[in-house]
Amino acid sequence: NYGGLGLNDNNRRSSPTQIGTDNTWSSVDWGFNIGVGIKTDGTLWAWGRNGGGQIGDNTNTQRSSPTQIPGTTWSDVSSVNYNTVAVKTDGTLWTWGDPEYGTLGQNTTSGAGVSSPTQLGSGADWSKVTVGGHQAGAVKTDGTLYMWGNNQQGQLGQNSLVQQSSPVQVPGTTWNDITMYTYTLYGSTLATKTDGTLWSWGYNNHGQLGDNSRVNKSSPIQIP
Question: How large is the greatest C-alpha to C-alpha distance in the chain, in angstroms?
Answer without folding.
Answer: 47
